[in-house]
Design goal:
The protein is α/β, with parallel strands linked by helices and 256 residues long. It is built from ten helices and seven strands. It binds S-adenosylmethionine.
Amino acid sequence: MTGKDIWDAKTYLQFEDERLRPALDLIARIPHEAPKLVVDLGCGAGNALPVLAARFPTARVMGVDGSAAMLAKAAAAGFETAQADIGTWAPAAPVDVIFSNAALQWLDGHEALFPRLLECLAPGGVLAVQMPSMHAAPLRAVQDRIAREGPWAEVLQRVKSAPPILSPEAYYALLSPRVAKLEMWVTEYIHVLRGEDPVVRWAMGTSLRPFLDAMGAEGSKGFLAAYAAAMRAAYPPGPDGAVLLPFRRLFVLARK
Ligand SMILES: C[S@@+](CC[C@H](N)C(=O)[O-])C[C@H]1O[C@@H](n2cnc3c(N)ncnc32)[C@H](O)[C@@H]1O
C-alpha cells in the first residue's frame, strides 16, 4: 500500500468483539457451498480469518491488507497473507469468495471498484461486503466539523478519513445488472461501550486515525479534548456507566 501505515492493531482490537460481530453475521449468510479460494480483503489483524476457515474448511483462506502493522498479527496466527492496496489488487486466479469487513469504505471510487471486484470472481463466486454507514452520526460528523474549525484546520486541510459510502440504491444500480443474485441489508448495532471516553477510544482505532496521524501525538491533544467533550454530550453514559453507540452498517452480498 502506498503512503504511511496509519494503523495500530492494539488500538483497533480494544473493541474486538463489537468489531467482529458484523463479520460473523455476514459470514453466516455467504451463499457458497464449497469455495476453493476465499480472500479477506482488508483483513486487518485477521480476526475474521479463523471464522472463514471454520465456515469453509476445505478452502484456501488468505488475507490481503495494505498495513504491515495489521497483517503481522494475521500472519503470526498462521494465516496466508499478502500486502497489497485493494485499489490495485488483482488475484492470480479467480476467487470463489471475496469477503470484506469494514475495509472498502476506506477506498474512493466504488463505481469502478465494485465491478472490478466482481470481475475477480470465479463463476458462481460471491462478493460479501460490510461497510459502516456513519457519516451522518455524531461519531463521524463531529470529526469533520472539529477538523475544519480548530487551530489545526490548516494541518488537517487535506486530510481525509473514510469517504461516505454510496446509497443502497446506487449499489443496487451498479451491481444488479452484473450478478445473478444480490442481497443487501442495513443493521444498526447498539454497541455497549465502557470505560473512559469509550467513543473516542473506539474512533481512535479507525476513523480518527488519519487526523491523529497528521497531527502527531502532541498536536492531537486539543483536537482529542474537543472531540471527547462532543462525544460525551452526543453519547452520554447511562446510570450504570455504559455508553450506547448506535452503529449503522450496510451489507452487500452479490453472487455471480
Ligand atoms: C477497520 S479495519 C478492518 C479490519 C478487518 N477487516 C476487521 O474486520 O477486523 C480496515 C482495514 O482496511 C485496510 N485498508 C484500508 N484501505 C486499504 C487499501 N486501500 N488497501 C488495503 N488495505 C486497506 C486497513 O489497513 C485496515 O487493516
